[in-house]
User: Which sequence fits this backbone?
């Protein structure tokens, strides 16, 4: 049987204030196309369906449209909650939707719900574990539980494993050995990390939470990653669509399908004057998201506004000039007493900017200094 493994849709997400509605609808359309092309049997959505607990109307409409499209294709859909979802709100209509083969497990109530699928004599059991935290498990199960590992251990006792079937676990947690990125939300430090050993008994762990596609612990413990890039740290990552195929011997094959976002994240570099010149941008798709690295020595006044008039989707602006690192030893060497305030300022300016202040710049500081001392 074939399944599309999705996670971290983050519907309603804004990137640096830009609405991703159009991009998200387009990328979900690509998911539907893949479902058609590969004749998949089901879709797993492993948490962070929405970006926020109270999603905007557009995001709810988008999920509604997507679920309707999946249902039209007679696909089984499995949804668990993530840390960004409101478990209670995502649970809306779950009993009714089950009749339409849309299975939602968003609230952990002391049992790991499952659903069975059968085709050509092959059976697949899908275990749906919503996002859990130690406090949820402690409260719901009435057991001492003071760590994320203990929470997972307790949850795993409540799995209805079927030795005869291919067992797939859906889980939205931070498993050890995986690589994080800037658009995720984590507990302070790595307290929320969970050992991958809990996943070993499953034929496939359909994970969610981490935004870059990756396996952790073993190939079958997989984070598909987000369908779109959400932060500048994901600029060089290729986002893919993960499809899995369960085999009669319970082995699971993982296939990564290409995705083509309508607007990509692109890095450009040059001086301000170069980057704003027509010859630089005339062949660029200005609807893309731009990460700009400026080679200017001096900071450009109102750089954001000026660049945004050409590149409306700016991710980040950074100056390439490297400022020398100052160590505590360097600080000891500073002999401040013998220097004039202007000499101290000139040194500071050079240290900060990697270049000496011009006469014009020094004049501004000298005038300011004199103005202050005149009022004394
Ligand atoms: Mn997420």
Assistant:
């Amino acid at each position: 049987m074939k399944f599309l493994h999705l996670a971290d849709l983050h519907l309603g997400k804004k990137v640096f204030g830009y609405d991703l509605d159009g991009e998200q609808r387009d990328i979900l359309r690509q998911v539907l196309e893949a479902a058609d092309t590969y004749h998949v049997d089901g879709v797993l959505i492993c948490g962070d369906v929405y970006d926020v607990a109270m999603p905007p109307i557009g995001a709810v409409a988008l999920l509604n449209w997507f679920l309707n499209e999946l249902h039209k294709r007679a696909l089984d859909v499995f949804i668990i909650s993530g840390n960004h979802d409101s478990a209670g709100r995502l649970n809306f209509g779950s009993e009714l939707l089950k009749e339409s083969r849309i299975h939602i497990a968003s609230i952990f109530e002391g049992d790991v719900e499952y659903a069975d699928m059968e085709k050509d004599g092959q059976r697949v059991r899908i275990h749906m574990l919503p996002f859990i935290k130690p406090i949820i498990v402690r409260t719901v199960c009435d057991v001492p539980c003071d760590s994320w590992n203990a929470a997972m251990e307790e949850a795993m006792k409540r799995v209805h494993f079927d030795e005869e079937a291919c067992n797939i676990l859906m889980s939205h947690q931070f498993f050890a050995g995986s690589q994080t990125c800037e658009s995720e939300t984590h507990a302070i430090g790595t307290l929320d990390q969970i050992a991958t050993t809990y996943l070993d008994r499953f034929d496939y762990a359909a994970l969610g939470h981490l935004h870059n596609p990756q396996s952790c612990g073993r190939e079958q413990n997989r984070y598909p990653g987000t369908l779109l890039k959400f932060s500048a740290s994901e600029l060089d990552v290729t986002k893919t669509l993960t499809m899995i195929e369960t085999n009669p011997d319970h082995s699971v094959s993982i296939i990564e399908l290409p995705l083509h976002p309508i607007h990509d994240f692109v890095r450009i570099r040059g001086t301000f004057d170069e980057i704003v010149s027509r010859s630089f941008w005339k062949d660029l798709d200005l609807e893309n998201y731009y990460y700009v690295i400026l080679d200017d020595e001096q900071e450009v006044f109102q750089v954001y506004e000026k660049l945004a008039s050409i590149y409306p989707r700016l991710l980040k602006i950074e100056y390439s000039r490297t400022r020398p690192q100052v160590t505590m030893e360097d600080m000891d060497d500073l002999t401040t007493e013998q220097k004039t305030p202007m000499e101290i300022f000139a040194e500071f300016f050079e240290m900060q900017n990697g270049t000496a202040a011009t006469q014009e710049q020094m004049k501004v500081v000298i005038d300011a200094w004199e103005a202050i001392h005149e009022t004394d």
About this structure: Residues 8, 10, 48, 82, 84, 184, 209 surround manganese (II) ion (CB under 6 Å). The two ends are 83 Å apart (CA to CA). The first helix runs from residue 21 to 37. The CA atoms of residues 334 and 344 lie 10 Å apart.
